[in-house]
Amino acid sequence: MALTSPRRSALSDQVIGQLRNQITSGEWPVGSRIPTEPELVEQLGVARNTVREAVRALAHNGLLDIRQGSGTYVVATSELAGVMHRRFADADPRHVAELRSTLESSGARLAAERRTAKDLAQLEALLDRREEAWDSGDAELFVAADATFHLAVVAASHNEVLTGLYADLADLLRDWLRDDVGGELRPAHHMDHARLVEAIRAGDGDTAAAEAASYPFMCLARPAEAGG
User: Fold this and answer.
1) Which of 8, 163, 184, 207 has the fewest CB atoms lying closer than 10 Å?
2) DSSP labels for 178-205?
């Protein structure tokens, strides 16, 4: 069979794939602004229309948000995460807290039963990073560190379905935490997660589940002036 020139749609699919990889790999993290259209044209070596088509496709799928006059930003790490983000963006904060509590409590209970030495080492490292982020006073850094820690707790359950669902909801949960914390860290924002790690280490599923379940509602119980 004779070779033929690549179709325009095939080239566009390749560009979409490359941009998606930048997002899913974390090279372009959630909240970051991606390179401008001229920059992408230069980096990819394709026509402006092809880049524009790829960016619009990823925006349609919920991974990117095109903001006129500001740029294009990453808002989700997968198509499903994008759907979740759009579907529940305006949900009642208490309902989001209830969902987070349910998932994290189940994940923590399983983590206490199934955690490995590697899981425990990672949880300790991420707990330290969370404390360092708190001490820095950088609210966005703290939100990212806290979200990463909680995802690691759920991942230690070694339940791929639960972990995948939590990961796809992570962008929504991160937005909820970001709104709760606000732009400035205050004493009321800090919650000790060492007891959660110790319960998982000890194999105490009941305590681990109770600790994980309490965090979202402790956030909602904060006084309004304290950023809750």
Assistant:
1) 184
2) HHHHTTS--GGG----HHHHHHHHHT-H
Chain segment 81-94, per-residue pLDDT in tens: 777 777 787 888 88
CA distances from 182 to 63, 125, 189 (A): 24, 25, 10
Q: Looking at the structure, tell me whether residues 111 and 182 fall in a common domain.
A: yes
For 52-99, the DSSP string reads HHHHHHHHHTTSEEEETTTEEEE--SSHHHHHHHHHHTTS-HHHHHHH
Q: How many domains does the chain have?
A: 2
pTM higher than 0.70, yes or no?
no
Residue 1 lies inside a defined structural domain of this protein: no
Phi first, then psi, for residue 33 (nearest 5°) are -90, 130
